[in-house]
Amino acid sequence: MSVKRHATAAFCAVILVFGIGSQSVSAQTLSEARRVFKTKLLQKVNAKQPVEKPPSHLFQLIKYKSAAGNLDAYLTPDPRDGKKHPAIIWITGGDCNSIGDVWSEASKDNDQTASAYRDAGIVMMFPSLRGGNMNPGFQEGFYGEVDDIVAAADHLAAQPYIDPSRIYLGGHSTGGTMVLLVAEVSTRFRAVISLGPVSNISRYDSSTISLPFEKNEQEIKLRSPGFWLDSIKTPTYVFEGSQAPGNSAELRQMAKSTKSTLINFLLIKGTHFSLLSQVNKILAEKIIADNAKEVNLAFTDSELKALSALKPPVEETLRAMPVSTAIAGKKGVTRAMFVISKSDHMTGLIYSIAPTGGFASIKSVSMRQRTQLPDTESKVEAARNGYILFGVMVDADTKLNALQLVYVRLKDDGSIDPNDTYSSEWLGTRTKAQPVKLGCDQTKKVVGAKLEIQDGTISGIALSMMPQGST
After folding, report:
1. Domains and CATH numbers, the chain
2. Is 426 exposed, middle or buried (0-12, 13-18, 19+ CB in 10 A)?
3. CB neighbour list of residue 389: distance below 8 Å, 6 or more residues apart
4. Which of 463, 460, 462, 461 is nearest to 446 (CA)?
5. At what angle do helices 174-183 and 144-157 cross, to 10 degrees?
6. What's the CA gap between 138 and 352, in Å, rounded?
7. 422 - beta bridge partners?
8. Residue 315 carries which DSSP code?
9. Residue 245 preceded by cis peptide, ω within 30
10. Which residues lie closer than 8 Å to 153 by C-beta, 6 or more apart?
C-alpha cells in the first residue's frame, strides 16, 4: 500500500480554514511555550495502514522508541565497513506521519524519495510518527510528532555505523514545516534542511492534511514555525521554488520576520516539486564533504547561479546564502563565523591588537555596522561618510598579522562606484609576506567574515559576500 503524498495539498491551500492575526517572531522560545501547554485533540486520528516492506538491500524496517510507543521506520542497513557514516532523517510531504514507498525510481520533476542522499552514500532514516501506519498514539498535527523526530535521532545516534555528530534533518512540504519546528526545539542535528515549508499551518487545508486539534490561537501558534524562528540554534537552510505551485510567499514572510544569521533562505528556479532533485543532489554532496568541526554547507557562486533565476529581481535574491571567499592565512581547528543583517552595509571593523611572537598582531575582529561602538578594549577602523567596506588586504602566515581595509563610495541610489575607493592604514604589523586581497568585487557586498582559530589565535580570515542589492 502506498502512502499518499499529496500533489496539491503539500503547498498552501487556496482556502484558509482557520487563522490568527498578524504574524511576528515570538520573544519566548518554542520550548518554553510547549513546556506549559497541553494540546487538546478533537479527533483521534490513526491511519491504520500497514507499513510496506522495503527492499532489504536498501532499507530495513525497524522500530524506534518514542513517548507515543514503538514506531516504525525505514533505515539504511549497516554497510559493515567499520566506518562511522553521516546520516539524514527525512520527513516526507503529504501525510508525513506515515511512511511508504521511498525506494522506487521517481521523476526528477518530483522526487519525494530524496534519493540523492542514498545515492551519495549517506545513511537515511524515514521515521513514521505517532498515529501513522499502524503506530500507537494519535496524530497531533505538527505537535507531538516533533518529539517523535527527536526520539528517532536518538535511536539513529546509537547505531554503531553512524557518526552521531553528523546527523542531519531534512523534509519537504509538510515535512519541511515539521523539521523547522524540530529545529526550534532541538539542537540535536548538525544542520536542518527545509524544502517548501509554510510559516503558519493555518495555510493548510484540513480536508487534506490532518489537523485534529482545537482551532484556537495558541494551538495554531505552537504548530507554526514562523512565530519561533529566533528559537533556532542550528544552521538551517530553507528553500522554495519561485514558480507556482509553491509556498514562495511563505518563504518571503519568514525571511523578513527574522534577523537570525543561522537561517538561510533561497528562492530557486522551479516549483515546489521540481526543486527537490536539484537541491538535494547539491546538498548530498556537501554533506559528504562536511566533516570539519564546524558546519559548512555554504553554496558556491556557480551553484547559486545555477539554482537561482538568471537575473532575479531584488526581492528574488531574498536573503540568499552568503558565499565565502578563499581563506587568507592558515586554516584553523575551529571557526568563528558572523554575518550581519544582510540588508545593511559594513562600514569598517572593530578590532584589538595583542603582542604575539615579538610584535603586535590582530587579536580579535568583528564587523562594524554604521555607528556601532566598540567595547572598552577594542578599536574602530571606520569608513569616511558615504563609503562602505569593499574588501580587505590580509597579511597572514600562521597568524593574522595585519589588515588593511578597502572602502568604496556608496551612491545615493544604493549602488557603488568602483572607481572611487580608498584604503585604510595597516592595522597590526606588516611582514614581508605578499598580502592577499579578499572581496573588492563590484557585484557583491561584504556581509560578514569567517575567522580561523588555532590555539586561541586568529590564523586566517575569509569574507562572507552577498550579491549587491540582496536583502
Report:
1. 30-321 (3.40.50.1820), 328-467 (2.100.10.30)
2. middle
3. 345, 346, 347, 348, 349, 367, 383, 405, 406, 407, 439, 446
4. 463
5. 70
6. 57
7. 407
8. G
9. yes
10. 89, 167, 169, 186, 188, 189
- Position of cell 574588501? 391
Q: Is the dihedral of CA 133, 134, 136, 139 positive or negative?
A: positive
**CB contact at 8 A, 330 and 433:** no
What is the enclosing helix (H) or strand (E) of 142? none
Distance CA 316, CA 429 (A): 43
Strand (E) or helix (H) holding 300: none
Q: Which residue has the higher pLDDT, 9 or 55?
A: 55
Strand partners, 264: 237
- Alpha-carbon distance of 428 to 395, in angstroms, equals 9
DSSP assignment of 85-120 equals: EEEEEEE-SSSTTS----SS---TTS-TT-HHHHHT
pLDDT (tens digit per residue) in 334-384: 555 555 544 567 888 877 887 766 667 777 777 665 444 444 457 888 899
Residue type, 246: G
Question: Which of 118, 117, 108 is closest to 270 using CA atoms?
Answer: 108
pTM, 2 dp: 0.68
Q: What is the DSSP string of 51-78?
A: PPPPPTTT-EEEEEEETTEEEEEEEPPP
| Three-class SS state of 230 | helix
What pairing do the DSSP bridges indicate for beta strands 400-410 and 427-428?
antiparallel
Instruction: Label the pairing between strands 69-75 and 123-127.
Output: antiparallel
Report how far residue 453's alpha carbon sits from residue 459's, in angstroms, rounded to the nearest whole number: 6
Query: Over the stretch 438-447, which tens digit does the pLDDT of each residue have?
Result: 999 988 888 8
β-strands 359-369, 379-382: how paired? unpaired
Q: Give the span between the Cα atoms of 125 and 268, in whole angstroms.
A: 26
Name the residue with cell 511512511. 99
Q: Which amino acid is at 157?
A: A
